[in-house]
Amino acid sequence: MNARRRFHRGGPQAPSRGSTLVIVLWIALGLVSLGLYFGQSSALALRASDQRAASIEAEQAIQGATRYAAYVLTNLDIPGVLPQFQIAPTFRPVTENVRVGDSAFWFLGRDPDLLASTPGRNVQPVFGLVDEASKLNLNTATLEMLEALPRMTPQLAAAIMDWRDEDDEVSTDGAEESTYQRLNPAYRCKNAPFESIEELRLVYGMTLDILAGEDANRNGILDPNEDDYDSTPPLDNRNGRLEPGLWEYVTVHSQESLTTTNGTAKVSLGAQGRQQLATLLQERLGNQRANEILQRVGNQNPAGLLNFFVQSGMSVDEFAQVEGDLTAGDGQTPRQGLINVNSAPEAVLACIPGIGIDMAPQLVSYRQSNPSRRNTVAWVAEILGTQRSLQAGRYLTGRSSVYSADVCAVGHLGRGYRRCRIIFDASEGGLRIVQRADWSHLGWALGSQTWQQMQQQRQLTQNTR
Ligand SMILES: [Ca+2]
Ligand SMILES: [Ca+2]
Ligand SMILES: [Ca+2]
Ligand SMILES: [Ca+2]
Fold it and tell me: Which ligand does the CA of 233 lie closest to?
């Protein structure tokens, strides 16, 4: 009875109710925190998937940009001359903030007329396609030419020569197989041509500092972290000027085309092409001028187009009528590594024998004030004179056939930034993509102005939502 009463009166029930309440409270608390947790993580997941969607949009924009670049390159008014070097191209491509649906792309370019001596000008990017013939070719440059590059040392230049030459004989200051075998981990010396400029990382003695220089994100402009000494990497000299590394000035992809724009084979300036040369000159300049020119050239085998121009006594206008049809090679194997005097920066021109650091700035100023001549190599003779022209001519061209597109892209609201560099080769007739490298890891490359515009646009869209 006692026990029943106790039971009915709920003596032992009271603690039971209390503990139920506690349990319920705990469960409620648990549910709330679970809800909070899932709410938070689904917001995170949403943001991540939004970021991923934006990246995919940016990738799509890069695909679009690749096709657009190919279209531009196959429709050049003057073959071998990029639109920015033409005075009045019938088609001037859009190169910045090109909208593709919600995304956009930019062709990150270079201004080759920017003299190294001009401080503070290169803080915002220029846009456009880039001429690969504006750079020094790692596979054809001589030791002396390599040594003239910024940041280069004699040891490094020699190691580059040893890396690409077939033999295993160590050149003065160079490095061959035995050196690479001593490294930890050891690897082989290539003893074959470079296939990409990134391969320079493997050459003995190379450092990232020499390769990238102050331009850590490889965009050709001075970003804030590249002008603040050691506050943020890279280490720079804080002088308000960008001093880039080797990567800025070298290529492995420059080679001349063996066909003219209408698909016919170019005429060789060598002995084997003499008859065709006569026909070409007669066609374009008439019999009398053709005979005079051929007589002056005689049996010489011009080492370059500039050499032929100097030896022939032609006028610049006459030369322009045949330049696109000529090659100083044998007409069978395309000549590699010719440097386009109309698009190369001062630092590259300075590497060429006959030009050097004393004449390079003069060439840059001349072509700046004479933009109509940026489709020929002939004008160089006026600046360099005969002797220097004959020395430099074998390394020079006035036009190009290999180009690169450094494409930066963003998805909706400026999110999902991607960057890709694509190299196009038109030297074998038609356009081929010969290399495609993802450069997204180098970080934002479009400069502070575009960054601010993106932020403002994003803010505006979020406010109106
Ligand atoms: Ca070797
Ligand atoms: Ca930079
Ligand atoms: Ca720095
Ligand atoms: Ca600097």
Answer: 3
State the distance from the centre of ligand 4 to the C-alpha of 350, rounded, in angstroms. Answer: 20
Q: How far is the CA of 244 from the centre of ligand 4 (A)?
A: 8
The alpha carbon of 117 and the centre of ligand 3 are apart by a number of angstroms equal to 21
In which domain, by residue range, is 332 found? 267-397
Nearest-angstrom CA–CA distance, 82 and 130: 8
Q: How far is CA 248 from the centre of its chain?
A: 8
Q: Rounded CA gap, 219 and 445, in Å?
A: 6
- The verdict on residue 383 lying in a domain is yes
369's tokens:
């004030």
Q: Residue 164: nearest ligand to its CA?
A: 1
Task: Give the ligand at the shortest distance from the Cα of 216.
Answer: 2
pTM, to two decimals: 0.89
Ligand lying nearest the CA atom of residue 239? 4
Ligand nearest to the CA of 162: 1
User: Tens of pLDDT along the chain (465 residues)?
Assistant: 444 444 444 444 555 677 777 777 777 777 777 777 777 777 788 888 999 999 999 999 999 999 999 999 999 998 899 999 999 999 899 999 999 999 999 999 999 998 876 666 788 899 999 999 999 999 999 999 999 999 999 999 999 999 999 999 999 999 999 999 999 999 999 999 999 999 999 999 999 999 999 999 999 999 999 999 999 999 999 999 999 999 999 999 999 999 887 788 999 999 889 999 999 999 999 999 999 999 999 988 999 999 999 999 999 989 989 999 999 999 899 999 999 999 999 999 999 999 999 999 999 999 999 999 999 999 999 999 999 999 999 999 999 999 999 999 999 999 999 999 999 999 988 899 999 999 999 999 999 999 999 999 888 888 887
**Residue 188 included in any domain:** no
269: CA distance to ligand 4 center in Å?
44
Give the chain's domain count.
1
363 within some domain: yes
Residue 138 CA to ligand 3 center (angstroms) comes to 28
Going from the Cα of 122 to the center of ligand 3, the distance in angstroms, rounded, reads 16
Ion ligand 1: residues, CB within 5 A, are: 162, 165, 191
Tell me if 444 is assigned to some domain.
no
Question: Ligand 2 being an ion, which residues bring their Cβ within 5 A of it?
Answer: 215, 217, 219, 223
Question: Taking the C-alpha atoms of 381, 382, 384 and 385 in order, what is their torsion angle to the nearest 10 degrees?
Answer: 80
- What is the 232 CA–ligand 4 centroid distance (Å)? 14
Instruction: Output the CA 242–ligand 2 centroid distance in Å.
Output: 8
